[in-house]
Design brief:
Layout (H helix, E strand, L loop, with lengths): L26 H17 L1 E8 L7 H14 L4 E5 L7 H4 L8 E3 L2 E3 L1 E3 L2 E5 L15 H14 L5 E7 L6 H9 L5 E6 L3 H16 L4 E12 L6 E2 L6 H9 L3 E7 L1 H9 L3 H4 L4 H31 E9 L2 E2 L8 E8 L4 E8 L8 H8 L4 E3 L5 H9 L3 E3 L7 H10 L12
């Protein structure tokens, strides 16, 4: 009878025990490692934007590629991921047909083109004409690998070009790359396109994925000789659909022969034709996407201001002056709100007292908080307009004692002694 070893696996005590020798780690451990690596990659990508459409042939990959290049030209760190498994267009569109990826430090290195990090299943095919015949689980697996094993580094934006429809690929992206900031939905003006594109918007709403906006592509024709735009089909279908579906409309991009020529030549249109009206149309499309970065900067600035504060205290004879507008000097004290410590301080003589002078002066000094004994309501409103928080009713104590109590949340305040 085989004696069970100490781990209870049924091996005889003379055999190699579990967890030693050549035995592979269990699947659940590998899955945990992959999940950790996925989260580490995603944590370094600020914004993930899905470009999608319910209809094929609307120029979705053209929009995705030029969107990525436009963001890069705006000084952003950008990646472009092509998850169109069966019909990857990005390698051809960027003239990267012959590009090959390689491994470095255990990670797949994306192809860099025009400042954008690019990855596509097209780079992995031995023959560019090979058909990829995969079912859903296999497609989801390779998308996860693109997100987990590709060395994207630090990115401001990852633009994800998906195939037409609302199937496995966009669903896998939304689930694996969570949270995705939103989708740019591409359509052409015709009813036959907008009817299918409505399904993409419904897809986003069902998955609670914000729709950043609708792009109406191929809206009018740009004459290559005179530059005049002619509506050879119709125009306004995408804008009308966006209005009916209650999502933003990002703008129209006309049919421009130079765009087709640029795609066939593998030269990003906005990179080489930045002064054209069509390129300017692409710029208008990226405006709300750039607003995501502007929001980041505002949040970061607010966080910095919350951490590092400069507090002003009116001083008379070494203590807080009870009448704010009549003090001879101010103590300006820098504090770290995280460690609750004073990092620097100085004494300044204020300019001659006149209505509105002190709020502007203290704002110029970088003051974010005022501790006062008394202050009129009008003066408080002026300080608020300058982004300075005011605490009134503080006792007449040395500045250091007031700061310590303020940071500890124990500052005792009484009545406003000067409300005029």
């Amino acid at each position: 009878m085989t004696e069970k070893n100490e781990c209870g696996c049924g091996k005889s005590t003379g055999e190699t025990p579990c967890g030693s020798g050549n035995k592979q780690p269990p699947d659940h451990f590998n899955n945990w490692l992959h999940e950790q690596q996925l989260q580490e990659r995603l944590h370094r990508i600020r914004h993930k934007i899905l470009v999608m459409s319910g209809k094929g042939g609307v120029g979705k990959s053209t929009v995705a590629a030029n969107l990525a290049i436009s963001l890069s030209l705006s000084g952003k760190r950008v990646g472009l991921l092509d998850v169109d498994i069966h019909g990857p267009s990005i390698p051809k569109m960027l003239h990267l047909d012959a590009a090959n990826v390689h491994m470095k430090d255990g990670a797949i290195q994306p192809v860099i083109h025009a400042g954008v990090k690019v990855m596509s299943v097209g780079f992995l095919l031995k023959d560019r004409d090979d058909a990829v015949i995969w079912r859903g689980p296999m497609k989801a697996s390779v998308i996860k690998q693109f997100l987990t094993d590709v060395d994207w580094g630090d990115l401001d934006y990852l633009i994800i070009d998906s195939p037409p429809g609302t199937g496995d690929e966009p669903l896998s992206v939304v689930q694996l790359a969570e949270p995705v900031d939103g989708a740019v939905v591409v359509t052409t003006p015709q009813d036959v396109a907008t009817t299918d594109v409505r399904k993409s918007i419904k897809f986003c709403k069902q998955l609670q994925l914000p729709v950043l906006g609708v792009v109406e592509n191929m809206s009018g024709f740009v004459c290559p000789k005179c530059g005049e735009v002619t509506d050879i089909f119709k125009t306004g279908g995408g804008e009308k659909m966006a209005s009916e579906m209650k999502v933003p409309f990002l703008g129209r991009i006309p049919i421009d022969p130079a765009v087709g020529q640029a795609c066939d030549a593998g030269t990003p249109f906005v990179y080489h034709h930045s002064r054209t009206e069509t390129a300017k149309a692409f710029e208008r499309v990226i405006a709300p996407i750039l607003a995501l970065s502007a929001h980041d900067e505002t949040v970061q600035q607010n966080q910095k201001e919350e951490i590092a504060m400069k507090i002003a205290i009116p001083i008379a004879e070494g203590k807080l002056a009870m009448h704010f507008g009549h003090c001879a000097e101010f103590a300006l004290i820098d504090v770290d709100n995280t460690t609750k410590t004073i990092t620097g301080q100085k004494r300044l003589t204020p300019p001659p007292h006149e209505p509105g002078v002190l709020p502007r002066w203290l704002h110029e000094q970088g003051v974010t908080v005022i501790i006062a004994g008394g202050m009129g309501s009008r003066a408080q409103a002026l300080f608020a307009e300058n982004g300075i928080k005011v605490t009134v009713g503080a006792p007449s104590e040395p500045p250091e004692a007031l700061i310590a109590a303020y940071l500890a949340g124990t500052l005792q305040t009484g009545a406003n002694v000067c409300d005029h």
